[in-house]
Amino acid sequence: MGYVGWIGGNLGVKEEQTHQVESLLVKELLSLGAVLYCKSSLPQTLLNPGQNTYRSTVGLMSTSLEGLEITFRSLLSSKPWLHDPAVVPIPWRQDIIDVTNQRFASRSRTESRPLKLGILWNDSVVEPHPPVRRGLSIVVDAVRNAGHTVVDWSPPKQTTAKRVHVSFLFADGAHDVHTQLRRSGEPLIPELKKSFQLRDPIPLLEYQDLTLQGLDYEREYCDYWNSTSTDEAYTEAINLLNYSVVVIPVTRANKDIDLVDNTYSPISEADRKNWEACKWKYLIGGLDERSNNAPIVDDPEMYDGGPVGVQIVARKFEEEKVLAIAKHIHSALNIGNPR
Question: Which of 210, 280, 281, 315 has its CA 20 to 30 A from that of 67?
Fold first, then answer.
């Protein structure tokens, strides 16, 4: 729920109704005949504190892409926009699925129009860890072997998107976060105490300027996309752009293949911290994560077997299209059996 005080309720439920009201999504699922056997937790604050310019979005998780489709299709059949004014009134569009599937089915014919996908190897802020880099290469090979085109994706600076998005997250000085925490007396988790300590909100004119910067970035990204004629496109930019996304599994980290390159020179301070996350810090006589003075050494065992996925991105309101593409990429991965 994001907060203990929202259990049995959701955002917008009056404090006296907490623990008495189900969220709209749960109601819709129950009305469709779903059987709820558990409810998973969400990050504290939902990463959406006190601002509605860039809202959090409910993401479905499933053991299969077919499961995602049937849930998504079923939820839209209940017309949730009639009960929640924030929901865009777009029903399930099977025609988009069909058109996308036809492009995959006819790729070997002379009249076919293969898909053209862009691959973002890094965001110019951090370099992906070795298993992730290998996962991207696996996807590129599978898509090309399926008869489609892959090009390098070099969009507007991701740092701009991150700066604008993060500024919105902290715009109200964490006052909304603490208001929600007070509903139950829940403390901030240690990882968020520094980021969400109470402070003065940013001035209104600064907030409005951030909004304009976000719109400018959306236009710039859209122009770049159009210039590449690419059908499909790091998460911070996608949060700002509100694009459609599906994440699929690709492979698993392998300690014998995904070795740390000790000659690599980080491109930024954030990249240095990210790169050192590939490693553990050891003290003589044992492991001590609390020490900042311990020597850094490679430990491929740490991530061995960990899942590696890829995020597939389409434009805003193209959920059906990106889901169809994800199915075909997943199928291409299985056919190539590169794992």
Answer: 315
